[in-house]
Amino acid sequence: MSINCSFRIIIIYFCLYLSGLSVSAQVQVRNTIWNGEDFLCTPACRVVKEDSIRSLIFESVSYKGQAKSVFAYYATPAMLQGNSSQEKKLPGIILVHGGGGTAFREWVVMWAKRGYAALALDTRGNGPDKKHIDGGFDENEKETPYFDVTLPQKEQWVYQAVSDIFNAHSLLLSFPEVDVERTAITGISWGGVLTCIAASLDSRFRVAVPVYGCGFLSESGRMKQQLDGLPDEQREIWLKQYDPSNYLPRMERPILFINGTNDVHFYLPSMARSAVLASQSGLLIKQGLRHSHKYGWQSEEIAAFIDQYLRDVKPLAQITNEKVEEGLVSGEIISSTPVEKATLHYTTDSGQEREKYHWQAIESKVEKNKWRIPLPAGITTWYVNITDVRGYQISGELHIGN
What we know:
Elements: H1 3-19, E1 45-50, E2 54-63, E3 66-75, H2 77-81, E4 90-96, H3 105-113, E5 117-121, H4 157-174, E6 178-188, H5 190-201, E7 207-211, H6 221-228, H7 232-242, E8 255-260, H8 268-277, E9 281-286, H9 293-297, H10 300-310, E10 318-325, E11 328-334, E12 339-347, E13 360-364, E14 370-374, E15 381-388, E16 393-395, E17 399-400
Parallel strand pairs: 4-5, 4-6, 6-7, 7-8, 8-9
Antiparallel strand pairs: 1-2, 2-3, 3-5, 10-11, 11-14, 12-13, 12-15, 15-16, 15-17
Helix pairs in contact: 4-5
Keywords: Hydrolase
GO molecular function, one term: serine-type endopeptidase activity
InterPro entries: AB_hydrolase_fold, AXE1_dom, FrsA_esterase, Pept_S9_AS
């Protein structure tokens, strides 16, 4: 570590002390494979293009003997308006794409319009045209090596991608317009997997929303298929090093898991088991939600959940005291916004291919913040969603079996 960096760390800790932000809010990689990396210093960064948003390349951890280059988009509300005046105390967000994706320009614009300083990074070594950048991660013109543990550990994709998120967060926090006490992260699909890991270890994030991606991948759809295709030793190494279930018990800040009923990659039981590991978790299951970047980031509940912690807006509803008795499921609701309805989503199907299940729904009125719905005969998997007058949904417990 350089003398300049050491001095900067002292200054940062002093500023955190003065601001009241706990110095324990750091990247806590002790007893993980990332132990020994320095994620506190602001990475070197250069602007490669600027119009209504900025295109950046920043340095991440060592890769093949040199600091790796990572491309990112960055936007703020003032940038979109062509306003050069200095913004202050903006909430910030890191946006992590999924498989086959990149840093999406429209994604940062979406969040900047919501009032955020938004940074979307590419974890595949590509630039805005999806072409490889000098010094970036090398896919060798093949699919991203998600499960390859035959490479040197510090050159494996998950190791590098999680490191990139830590460094992107440090870069975001270095911008003077960003409030260091109010940052979030959300990711889609593989970006959701990375979000689970990064948010669990980086306590500077105040809230997280993984979409589709979760832990327990050895039990989950096409993720299981790919893991089962590895030699046993490699499969066990990957699961031990990278499955989010190893890290989510460290997640002590709010996290909302979002998925669809028939997702082919990430099955609902894996998501529900992942949520149990985190101390402040919630579920949002949407019947028929399709799997893609744009479907994934369109759920308005993502912003609503993050806003309730970073911008003091009215929170999503909460389901409490959920009970199953005499063929009925019932529960109560905590909500500062009027609730429109309760909906039982259920299937009578069974078997291993959960992406083929047929789902049905039964709606019920909510009276005095209480609801009750009869359970149909032959039900195998089910959950209840609450919808408020804004149209925002939240899910109760996922039930598997009668």
